[in-house]
Design goal:
heterodimer, A: 2 strands
């Protein structure tokens, strides 16, 4: 190995280290922040995210809570992860991380292609972002953080983005067609169509939020119950009695279901619903018909010009 | 520290979350998909070009093989032709030699026959002359007088002619 190569290698490793720090440090900061701010409490404590900061804003107060801070930390972590995975890409795919990166990209492409079709290829970024953000948000409770997905405001923001995309896709067919879509199959259905239209973001937001939050609530309840139980049974032993020994075990097993499985499941479901709703809002046949119409109109214009 | 109640809707928080997802989408596009797709595309291009090169090499090899086979066939034809020509030539030469030898033999025989004939004639002449001489002597002795051989030559000749 020449001096130059060694220098390059050292440089490569240094960048790697920085990227890993970028992945880990935001989460560590969040944990530190949480530890510093969490009040000592006894008994059942079921509440939303902790408020770190408030400021008066037009309309409603701006409140920065745990969920926002954790979301930013997770975004930074994902940014670090992306940079780490794509650091030192080569054509021959010599590193494991490159294989992982290619796997992620190809899987997202395949998923979007299978569920939405070729003409929505641009949605693969959004689907990857939803899955990554949602899964990491739900999993962040494993390291003791508050899951941002357990806050309805967070999932509502995502659902509104999806709703905006659905509406945007519908508007591709023309504004009048969009309005006409509400009166189908008969004009009598219009109010119901309106309700179903606007229930989409609400249902998506509450489905995700409810699943994660319910898991957190059950975990908190069981944890508290086990602490009480261990105090009742083992409380008479001098030193050991103060340690909630019964909390060992069962919460961990429940966490595998409520945090890991349910969290990943909800991420997948949210991504799936996004794909189905967007691609279903402007079906293939309607799109093809519209393309045909456009072509005919163009032809006519060309003929008129000639 | 205060907490939010378990359900509370705050428009700014929703907006922040909306922006977060949009930003993350951009991040993923820019920092994950673009570089990976670039690498995948360049790899596909490389593989395609490698296949094209392999095809070209194969075609070239096939062409070389055909050329070689054609050259071999031509060479074989030439050698065959050369061999058959040589064989024909050899046969022709052999026949020539044979004919020549036969001619020579016949000539020698003819010569020998002619020689023999000549010898025979000579001997005959000799014999005739002997006979004539002897008969002249005999006649001389018989007649007890000198007979001139010149006189009797004609006589004997005519006699011999009658033989």
């Amino acid at each position: 190995m020449t001096e130059k190569e060694r220098g390059r290698d050292a440089h490569f490793r240094m960048v790697d280290g920085l990227l890993i720090a970028l992945m880990v440090l935001p989460l560590v900061c969040c944990i530190v922040l949480k530890v510093l701010f969490t009040p000592e409490s006894e008994g059942v404590d079921i509440s939303g995210a902790m408020i770190y900061f408030t400021a008066p804003f037009p309309g409603q107060e701006l409140i920065i809570t745990e969920s926002q801070v954790n979301s930013w930390a997770i975004i930074l972590t994902l940014l670090g992860l992306c940079l780490y995975l794509t650091h030192g890409l080569t054509e021959k795919a010599e590193t494991k991380r490159q294989l992982i990166a290619e796997w992620i990209v190809e899987k997202c492409e395949g998923l979007v292609n299978a569920n939405m079709g070729e003409r929505y290829a641009g949605y693969e970024y959004l689907i990857a972002a939803i899955m990554g953000l949602s899964a990491l948000s739900s999993l962040s409770c494993l390291i003791g953080l508050f899951s941002p997905t357990g806050d309805v405001n967070v999932t509502a923001g995502w659902a509104i983005l999806v709703f905006a995309l659905v509406t945007y896709t519908k508007l591709q067919g023309g504004f009048l067609n969009y309005l006409k879509g509400f009166t189908e199959p008969i004009p009598l259905f219009t109010p119901m169509n309106f309700i179903s239209e606007f229930s989409l973001p609400v249902s998506m937001a509450f489905r995700h939020y409810g699943n994660v939050m319910s898991g957190a609530v059950i975990s908190a309840l069981i944890g508290t119950a086990l602490r009480g139980l261990s105090k009742m049974i083992l409380g008479w032993i001098p030193v050991i009695g103060n340690i909630p020994l019964l909390q060992i075990g069962l919460p961990a097993i429940l966490s595998i279901y409520f945090d890991v499985f349910s969290g990943l499941m909800q991420a997948y479901i949210f991504a799936m619903l996004t794909m189905l709703n967007v691609s279903g809002s402007f079906p293939q046949e309607a799109w093809e018909k519209r393309q045909e119409k456009k072509a005919i109109r163009k032809q006519r214009a060309a003929l008129a010009k000639a | 520290m205060q907490s939010l109640s378990i359900i509370s809707v705050n428009i700014w928080q929703i907006l922040i979350s909306f922006a977060n997802l949009a930003i993350l989408t951009w991040i993923i596009k820019k920092f994950l998909f673009k570089p990976v797709k670039k690498v995948l595309d360049s790899r596909r291009e490389n593989i395609d070009s490698a296949y094209a090169r392999a095809d070209a090499a194969e075609a070239e090899a096939e062409e070389h093989r055909l050329n070689y086979a054609a050259a071999m066939a031509a060479a074989k034809q030439t050698t065959d032709q050369m061999i058959s020509e040589a064989a024909r030539e050899a046969e022709r030469r052999g026949n020539e030699i044979e004919n020549e030898a036969r001619d020579r033999a016949q000539e020698i025989r003819r010569q020998a026959e002619a020689d023999a004939q000549l010898e025979k004639k000579k001997a005959e002449e000799e014999m005739k002359r002997e006979i004539a001489d002897i008969s002249a002597q005999l006649t001389g002795k018989l007649l007890e007088r000198e007979v001139k051989p010149e006189d009797h030559r004609g006589l004997i000749d005519s006699f011999l002619q009658e033989l």
